[in-house]
Write a structure and sequence with these properties.
The structure holds two protein chains of two kinds. Chain A is mainly α. Chain A has helices at about 1-20, 25-40, 45-65, 75-90, 95-115, 125-145, 145-150, 175-195, 195-205, 210-215, 220-245, 255-270, 275-295, 300-310, 315-330. Chain A has a single domain, classed as ABC transporter involved in vitamin B12 uptake, BtuC (Orthogonal Bundle). In chain B, a hairpin with a 2-residue loop joins strand 1 (about 5-15) and strand 2. Chain B is globular. The chains are: A mainly alpha, B alpha/beta. The structure holds adenosine-5'-triphosphate and magnesium ion. Magnesium ion binds next to helix 1 of chain B.
């Protein structure tokens, strides 16, 4: 009997340890991201943008993919981070890495305050509340022109070298390397979070909130916590954009940014942390390809692809693609 | 008798419908107490009130002398009340191991930890494995909960409740829908819990009720209709008519 007990403990421990182990495709993924520095030297500005948008979509994944909280206004925190970083630099503090931490902290604080609005309610009320908050932010930024520059944007940002060592260059090489490092660090943090008991409790409240409460999980506290963390992530993404482009405009708070973030996450798939980054890459590629093919109608096709993804289901499309590629390569099975 | 959990003049109205009608129920410490009554009598509603899933229209709920009427559902678990649901309430995509590990971590005050994964919390995982083992779930512990056979899902319901090491355990038809042969198995596990755990069991199968309960309360139309020792209830003419006469379809 005790042998059997030991055996099931053994299996349980092994299974628990396996869930946070690195897998080969993950390593390959990051290897490719690094390789892109050398293989795509002329596309660093685009890659930088992909990394930033990927981080932003990852921040949405934390609340949507794990805790099941929908948001149509996450650009609010992206924008807060962008303005915080931009204003900090304009005030004369020009070191980017610490500026990023500052911006992330501000955005997380704002997220904390806003989180109390999304604790209760249905998906629909959350969509409206988050959308409403984001709209308020746009108007506030617009009104306080003296601080934010209003519609003209925050001009004259000049960043110092990163950690006093790496100067930004016009080709965007430093920018991409910087954003990739930040993306990776934030990914590591997110990975830890989602594989922790805290992360499991988020999945629990997403899948069955009543049962989560009935095993003692304080669901409201969890939502406040993950919403603040997610806002911090979004704020850091916004700060990256401000620092690497040396510019902040009202566009950082735009509804379209929230919607794109969500769309990108849906394209890449939510709930496994890579969806935001993969979606961001796919989005950029599709935009590139479609806008060359049909410059005037690329949004039409983007929309069509999105509808197909949601209606048919990503899994089925991926399965079909897999089956197809197997057949094309002439490997039955 | 020390009372573990009690209700005082508890009333629950759904619109104009009186689902709980001035219920004064006492669950003694260490009780093996059954709550029976026809369909729609308000048994589940009473458990929902006791656990904080519902807030009563009137009345109070008292745990070990402390009024917990306003305490939210999760905090009541922390105070020692756990339950199972009549209709499975599981986490569909999680494995029994993940779900029970989470429940154990919650009880151990570790569920808010964001830095260490379960891989680094062996004492939590071991305890979860032991609970699953005890409920014959060890072989299925890494499968998705929604893919488990129904009997295993019922056992997982119980595992989730046990993980919080409750002082008061409220079981809402834990063996409902479980094949005849496995029903006693689940109730045996319940019966073998430590004697100081107070248990309130809702059950329609009178064989199970009489083999388990020392005290029985009969709920009819939201109100306590009759209460007494198992022997007294078994001897009651009205109960015999309703239950023992028709126990075939119980
Ligand atoms: N949320 C609700 N809204 C309205 N009516 C409800 C609600 N929950 C329960 N009821 C009603 O209250 C009554 C008691 O329901 P309850 O589920 O507590 O009965 P029960 O004794 O558990 O029955 P069963 O043996 O079938 O499980 C039923 O008539 C039911 O329709
Ligand atoms: Mg019921």
């Amino acid at each position: 009997m005790s042998e059997i007990v030991g055996n099931s403990r053994e299996r349980a421990r092994r299974s628990a340890a396996a869930s946070s182990r690195w897998r080969l495709p993950e390593l390959a993924f990051w290897g490719c991201a690094v390789a892109a520095i050398f293989l795509l030297p002329s596309r660093h500005l685009l890659l930088n943008e992909i990394a930033i948008v990927g981080l932003f979509a990852m921040s949405i994944d934390l609340i949507l993919g794990y805790a099941g909280i929908v948001s149509l206004g996450h650009a609010a925190f992206f924008g807060v981070g962008a303005y915080a970083a931009g204003l900090l630099a304009k005030s004369g503090y020009v070191e980017p890495a610490s500026g990023l931490l500052f911006a992330g902290a501000i955005a997380a604080t704002v997220g904390f305050s806003a989180s109390f609005l999304v604790i209760r309610g249905s998906d629909l009320t959350r969509l409206m509340v988050t959308l409403g908050v984001a709209l308020v932010f746009v108007e506030v930024a617009n009104r306080f022109e003296s601080v934010t520059g209003g519609v003209d944007g925050l001009l004259g940002i000049s960043m110092g070298p990163i950690l006093g060592l790496f100067e930004f260059d016009f080709g965007g090489t430093t920018a991409y390397c910087y954003s990739l490092c930040v993306l990776f660090v934030m990914f590591l943090i997110a990975r830890r979070i989602v594989n922790s008991p805290f992360g499991t409790s988020l999945r629990a409240l997403k899948e069955n909130r009543m049962r989560a409460g009935a095993i003692g999980i304080p669901t409201a506290k969890r939502i406040v916590a993950v919403y603040s963390i997610s806002a911090g992530f979004a704020g850091i993404a916004g700060a990256l954009l401000a620092q690497t482009t040396a510019f902040v405009s009202l566009e950082v708070l735009d509804f379209a940014r929230s919607a794109d973030g969500l769309l990108i996450l849906v394209i890449g798939g939510s709930g496994y942390l890579y969806g935001g980054i993969i979606g961001s890459i796919a989005f950029a590629l599709m935009r590139d390809a479609l806008s060359t093919l049909t410059p005037a109608y690329w949004l039409f096709w983007m929309g069509a692809i999105l509808v197909a993804l949601v209606v048919v289901g990503r899994e089925r499309i991926v399965d079909c693609a897999k089956a197809l590629s197997l057949r094309v390569r002439g490997q039955p099975k | 008798m020390t009372v573990a959990l009690e209700t005082h003049d508890l009333v629950m109205r759904f619109g104009g419908f009186l689902a709980t009608n001035r219920v004064n129920l006492q669950v003694a410490r260490g009780a093996r107490h059954a709550l029976i009554g026809p369909n729609g009598a308000g048994k589940t509603t009473l458990v929902n009130l006791m656990t904080g899933v519902l807030s009563p229209t009137e009345g109070r709920i008292v745990l070990e002398g402390h009024d917990i009427t306003a305490v939210p559902i999760a905090a009541r678990v922390g105070l020692g009340i756990a339950r199972t649901f009549q209709i499975n309430q599981l986490f569909p995509s999680m494995s029994p191991l993940e779900a029970v590990s989470l429940a154990v971590a919650q009880r151990a005050g570790r569920s808010a930890g964001i830095w260490r994964g379960f891989g680094a919390l062996p004492e939590i995982v071991d305890e979860a494995a032991d609970i699953l083992e005890g409920l014959h779930l060890a072989d299925a512990m890494t499968e998705r909960s929604d893919r488990l056979p129904y009997g295993k899902q019922r056992a997982l319901e119980l595992a989730l409740a046990l993980a919080s090491r409750p002082k008061v355990l409220l079981l809402d038809e834990p063996a409902a829908g479980v094949p005849e042969g496995e029903r006693h198995e689940i109730l045996d596990i319940v019966a073998s819990l430590p004697r100081d755990v107070s248990i309130l069991l809702i059950e329609h199968d009178m064989d199970l009720v009489f083999s388990f309960a020392e005290k029985i309360s009969v709920l009819v139309q939201g109100a306590v209709f009759l209460e007494g020792s198992a022997r007294e209830i078994a001897a009651d003419r009205r109960v015999r008519e309703v239950y023992l006469g028709e126990s075939a379809d119980g």
